Structure to design on (336 residues):
């Protein structure tokens, strides 16, 4: 892809990873136009974007990716070169309670975006997917990792909806020749993550001296990546990735939930007695672990933030941005 003033449509840009991606792109490519489209569901927060609202290269529009007419009008008006689809219902527990909206947003919404991308001839449609499409790995087989060729084998309505979207993206590539890429990343952490997810929830509960609910025995393993490293990987895929390809993103950083929770308590100088073991998540995936060899060898990507530094930065961010999480939990958390 040659160097030009690209117009990039970022969907879900008022959420956790999407907003970090917007910040990264405006900084790294100050000549690009970033059009951020978000429905502002409970997980989207306009105040997250306040620092870039006045940037002339940035435009926010409130739209729903399920709304075909609205999306068509966006493409007519902004004619993006590239679409990066972060917009999704993203929380596994919510998908177990209410699967329907996950199917609508994550599957139908993705197809609406791809229909417009096809009609208006974008040069790349990038689908932000997840390692959860591979299902889980056993705890006692540390030798096993998810590769791009690992069969899809989903556990929750969330992961099934993301896998369905991936299949549709591949179908649009094969059937219509839509230039697509897919990235499948492991668990992200960092600033602006909605406090329903493990790390921000535990930080905020600990700060409030509230109980820290650990599912089951806390021995499930996740593979953590600092959000900025994920954003840099997507940027690389947009510029150097090959059409039709899937790229796994992860930094070989597997940790048990209970160890993360204890680390957070230690950093905040709070007692472990705040931990409360609660009923396990239904269908709880045991272990995720990404093999990032392909993106490393083909695109020269490597994570830059070690977990020890990333978790420090993340805790500091939540300590210094109480206004953000107070507001977001007050206005949005009730939807759970
Ligand atoms: P998030 O829940 O923080 O943000 C999702 C955003 O999408 C919100 O701003 C929300 O308002 C918006 N949105 C939801 N439905 C919409 C709709 N119908 N139309 C337009 N906008 C809508 O999610 P996140 O954690 O930032 O995840 C972003 C993407 O990355 C998702 O596709 C998710 O599957 C994927 N992902 C997340 C992680 C992770 O650890 N959080 C890891 C790998 C992949
Ligand atoms: O792997 C990528 C995925 O990571 C993304 O696709 C999802 O969008 C994202 O939400 C995340 O899914 P997880 O289910 O792994 O994340 P969550 O933060 O919900 O949970 C992490 C682990 O912590 C998981 O094993 C469940 C456990 N947990 C979670 C919460 C919210 C608890 O023990 N207690 C909790 O209160």
């Amino acid at each position: 892809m040659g160097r030009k003033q690209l117009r990039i449509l970022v969907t879900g840009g008022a959420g956790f990873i999407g907003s970090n991606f917007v910040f990264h792109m405006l900084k790294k490519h100050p000549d690009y136009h970033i059009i951020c489209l978000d429905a502002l569901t409970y997980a989207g927060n306009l105040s997250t974007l306040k620092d870039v609202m006045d940037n002339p290269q940035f435009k926010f529009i409130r739209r729903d990716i399920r709304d075909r007419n609205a999306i068509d009008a966006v493409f007519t008006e902004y004619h993006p070169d590239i679409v990066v689809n972060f917009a999704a219902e993203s929380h596994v527990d919510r998908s177990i309670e209410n699967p329907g909206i996950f199917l609508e947003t994550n599957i139908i919404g993705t197809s609406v975006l791809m229909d417009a991308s096809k009609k208006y001839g974008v040069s790349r449609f990038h689908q932000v997917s997840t390692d959860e499409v591979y299902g889980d790995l056993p705890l006692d087989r540390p030798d096993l990792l998810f590769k791009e060729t690992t069969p899809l084998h989903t556990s929750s309505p969330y992961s099934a909806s993301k896998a369905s979207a991936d299949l549709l993206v591949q179908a649009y590539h094969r059937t219509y020749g839509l230039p697509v890429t897919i990235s499948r990343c492991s668990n992200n952490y960092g600033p602006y993550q909605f406090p329903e997810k493990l790390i921000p929830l535990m930080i905020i509960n600990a700060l409030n001296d509230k109980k820290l609910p650990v599912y089951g025995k806390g021995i499930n393993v996740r593979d953590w990546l600092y959000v900025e490293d994920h954003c840099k990987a997507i940027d690389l895929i947009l510029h150097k990735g090959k059409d039709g390809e899937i790229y796994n993103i992860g930094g070989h950083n597997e940790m048990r939930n209970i160890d993360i929770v204890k680390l957070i308590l230690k950093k905040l100088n709070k007692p472990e007695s705040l931990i409360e073991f609660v009923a396990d998540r239904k269908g709880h995936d045991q272990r995720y672990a990404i093999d990032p060899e392909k993106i490393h060898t083909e695109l020269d990507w490597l994570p830059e933030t070690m977990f020890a530094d990333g978790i420090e930065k993340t805790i500091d961010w939540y300590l210094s941005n109480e206004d953000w999480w107070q507001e977001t939990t007050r206005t949005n958390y009730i939807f759970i």
Observations:
- The chain has a mean pLDDT of 96.
- The two ends are 42 Å apart (CA to CA).
- The longest strand covers residues 124-130.
- The CA atoms of residues 106 and 162 lie 6 Å apart.
